[in-house]
Amino acid sequence: MKRSILLVLSLVLVLSSAVAPVAAAPKYKIGVLAPAVTHGWVAAVAYHAEARLKELGDEVEYRIQTSGNAEEMTSQLDDLMTWGAEAIVAFPQWEGMEVPMQRALDAGIEIVNFDIVIDLDGVYRVSGDNEDMGIQGAHYIVDKVGPDATVVILEVPTSGSVSALRKKGFLDTVKEIAPDLNILTYATQFTREAGLADFSDILMRNPKIDAVYSMDDETSIGVLQAIREAGRTDIKVITGGGGMQEYFQLMPENDDIWIQSALYSPAMVRDAVDVALKVLKGEEVEQVKIIPTTIVDRDNYKQFLDANSPY
Q1: pTM
Q2: Where are the alpha helices (DSSP H) in 178-308?
Q3: Which has the least CB within 10 A, 10, 40, 254, 285?
């Protein structure tokens, strides 16, 4: 009798272990901090980040927060820490985020910066090559209008390292290949409204301009409108940056001006999400991942048209 009972119990244990549910893979908690949507490129960053997180399915749990300034982003960083985020993909478009990010690092949270440079030990970063965008812009302009031309630089100091690096790449290259270039520098914003308003004023101040080193496609759309409204025919080159579909469409329509964009796709944020996940899984990841620059103009724009792009 005892043997029968033991045999039954053994069978029950074997069957129980055979049908025991397989433990689910761990779900990683990833937060995303992005600026509020004031620009098409920024909107596309949030779009691509969420799209990639959705593609990862049950592997991750995520929250996306958008903010209008550094103070609000700091508060949202605290919210993500309280929520239990293990990694945060951050697009800190304003100065002053070093202290709160250091606090997150000290709490053991992995930080992957997208686009903007934050000088903290332990932060991962995924970015386009901002300095190379400036280098490529300088070569493009000098090739089109020569080494003695008058060029307007439209910088955006409020964008931090993005504008600073693009300007550095441009100016360093000009010193090497066209030291006699006449350079005029003005501040603007990464919006077409600012490009239109600021460049309309610049046109009134300067009767002769050969080229414009603009760092952003949206700004450049405003610049082009200002040129058309002023009836100016002296400007032969407008650069840009970002990869905006509407801007690409303008390239063949304006055969009197070379319209150029240094491709800086918002889809790069997908790489930032992947870096965060790999770090959480303990996989080896390079500290900084730089996406190479690609130049788009009327000669090759068709290769970059995408009807499904949100930007």
Answers
A1: 0.72
A2: 192-205, 217-230, 245-250, 269-280
A3: 10
